[in-house]
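ok here's Thioredoxin domain-containing protein 5 homolog isoform X1:
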Amino acid sequence: MANLGVSKRWVLLLLFVQSQTGHGHDEDAHTLRYTHDTFSAQVGKRNHFVMFYAPWCGHCQRLGPTWEQLAEISNEGDNDIRIAKVDCTIESVLCSEQDVTGYPTLKFYKAGETKGVKFRGTRDLPTLTSFIVDHVGGSSTVEDVPSPPEAVNGLLELTEDTFEKHVSSGHHFVKFYAPWCGHCQKLAPTWDDVANSFRNDDVVSISKIDCTQHRSICGQFDIKGYPTLLWIEDGKKIDKYTGQRTHEELKAYVLMMLGKNADEPSRKSSSTDGLPHAILSLTADSFKQGIEKGLSFVKFFAPWCGHCKRLAPTWEELGKKFFGNDNVNIVKVDCTLDVSKHVCNEQEVDGFPTLYLYRNGRKVSEYTGSRTLDDLYDFVMTHLKTHDEL
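and the structure:
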């Protein structure tokens, strides 16, 4: 019952503080400041909500007034929660011990415990307050046991705790993003539509992860810009999507990847939805298997290469022409990716673009002619007919 009283006081105090918004607060007038020497002793006495920060951090500066409001709500009287902060530019050892890898990091500590529960929500006063009430007023333990991700209209929001296990098996199309990124904001409704299109498909999951909150995962996948869209299979990056970000193109890409890589031969023809997009992206891990059957016309390229950029739309059109043909694969390999460099060296690629034709996994020809759609198409058809006549 005591906990219920705490929760009620929190709601009343929140309403009071919100009614005072607009009246200035002296920064840190109520917020407790801890050092390495005082942290353990104080956290052992009461529940604590602690902000680990750096003074130069813009996100920390924006959170400061809200954090002071939380402190004004809590840090007086007999409330069972204290609001504190730790300057990691001064207390670097303490922040390292508390596994602080970015700023601000917000953690709730149960009285007497040294392991905190990381706050991962939006940093507004109502959300922060609800988080505190849930932990002070509830009976849950401090163990930070991640809940399995739940899809909203087919879209999964992943975190550092859920990402690795979730993508460890199966096919995944993942958006790595930052909330402040304009291109990400523009893509968001389209990404929702893509997820909704595959909400009943148990072969693929469409997900997203906020790189400002979950930096370790984004660092692991070498994310350099936002948004980055990766195709992941069984925990490994297979391809980076670089096409148009329309609903139709993104959906077609998923269907193409499933049709080529899933162990479902019928999916290629039965799941196209009439969307002609059929370029198979391969890496060193998937190259041998990807070209082992039929004719495979492979473009080895580099994204920065001007000739490659000019060829790209023609190569897409070539893929469309052979989309329904199970005997022909139109393939591309990005030789700048770490997961592809080995196969490019092995195939003796010494310039971009390099176009090789393979039959049942064996290299049979290098194409050096005109790169018009008609000439490329005729080249493939000539080899296809020659084989059929043998």
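+1. The first strand starts at residue 32 and ends at 33.
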